[in-house]
Amino acid sequence: MADKLVAVEGKPARASRLLSKGERVSVQLPEHQPPRTIRPAAIPLSLVFEDEHLAIIDKPAGLVVHPAPGHWDDTLVNALVARGTTLSGGAEGRPGIVHRLDRDTSGLMIVAKTDLAHRRLGAAIAARRVRRSYAALVWGHLDAAEVRIDAPIARHPRDRKRMAIASDGRPARTDARVVARFEVVDLVRLELHTGRTHQIRVHLEHLGHPIVGDPVYAAGGSRRISGPARRAAALLERATPRQALHAAALAFRHPVSGAPLEFHAEWPADLRDALDVAGGEELVAPPEALSYLRFFNRDG
Questions:
Q1: Which has more pLDDT, 38 or 244?
Q2: Dihedral, CA of residue 174, residue 178, residue 180 and residue 182, to nearest 10
Q3: Residues 6+ away with beta carbon under 8 Å from 172
Q4: d(CA 146, CA 187)
Q5: Could you say which of 58, 102, 104, 214 is catalytic?
Q6: Whole-number Å distance between alpha carbons of 265 and 227
Q7: β-bridge mates for residue 246, sequence order
Q8: Which among 63, 137, 150, 205 could disulfide-bond with 210, CB atoms 3.0 to 4.6 Å apart, if both were Cys?
């Protein structure tokens, strides 16, 4: 561990250390430390909606959601504190955070401003009453226009920073629908029915169609594409600055009033070149590319 409080046979152990039968483990319990104070950080935020109960944020890629080692003072929570936004209690260090996005995933997030809103939104997500739709560019072409990925997810047995499909993992389901097919990739709409860590990225790698630009679950990236299309795939990879995954739509009932709410976030500017390269001469899309491609049309 980073604080060297766990030892195996008297020697400090790493978090990734695999135990052998009969080894003796000792744990030194640290003295209680007061919770960290969340410092304000002047980071610009894009708010899509706000009332006294909740806020909807269009999170940019590169922004960590809540304070953690290596990012104590430069997160979304720090930015909300600087803005003076009232936040619900939530877990320690994660006030207001109802659900998370990976650092390099952009798009819509719900932030709870009261404990009541937080409890009800958390319950709605657990009961699958919050529809979360993501847009992604994935390598290759899905076998069918609609695919259900139902595969349990657990921590990778050897790399603790990764997740993996595992028979003893937690249940996870993602539904994928092809929105547009280009030369070497599909633009897909993905809907979460569970919220496991890295769920979409792990599921798409498992399906054989990893997200373009994903540095962890790449499964070969552009090298997966062979033949004459290989050059187009390499050009697309160079045009993609991060994983091409964007939380594009949220739909749920207001936790207090019960009114139906629905929010959309267009394809982000930092991935616009990637979409242009992917589409080639087939696509001449305006800045509202997802609307243009009917991504938000539930009837396809």
A1: 244
A2: 90
A3: 150, 151, 152, 153, 194, 196, 199, 202, 203
A4: 12
A5: 102
A6: 36
A7: 106, 135
A8: 205
Structure tokens belonging to residue 270: 């930092």
Rounded to the nearest 5°, which phi and psi values hold at 76?
-60, -40
Q: Which pTM does this prediction carry?
A: 0.86
* Strand segments (E) across 143-257: 146-150, 153-155, 163-165, 173-181, 185-192, 245-253
For the ranges 20-24, 41-45, 92-96, the lowest mean pLDDT is seen at 92-96
Provide the residue type at 79 as one letter. Answer: A
Enumerate domains of the chain plus CATH numbers.
41-292 (3.30.2350.10)
Environment class of 226 (CB within 10 Å of its CB; exposed 0-12, middle 13-18, buried 19+): exposed
pLDDT greater than 80 at residue 29: no
**β-strand partners of 134:** 190, 247
- Nearest alpha carbon to residue 247 among 137, 148, 107, 120: 107
pLDDT tens string 188-220: 999 999 999 999 999 999 999 999 999 999 988
Report in angstroms the alpha-carbon separations of 275 from 97, 143, 236, 237, 284.
30, 21, 8, 11, 10
Chain-centroid distance, C-alpha 128: 17
> DSSP H helical segments within the chain, as ranges?
76-83, 115-126, 199-207, 230-238, 272-279, 289-292
Q: Which two tokens stand for residue 93?
A: 């260090």
Which tokens belong to 116? 């009541």
Residues 89-128 have pLDDT tens digits of 876 678 999 999 999 999 999 999 999 999 999 999 999 9
Could you give the C-alpha distances from 70 to 16, 61, 75, 101, in angstroms and in order? 19, 17, 10, 17
Residue with the larger pLDDT of the pair 1 and 10: 10
CA–CA separation, 217 vs 213, rounded Å?
9
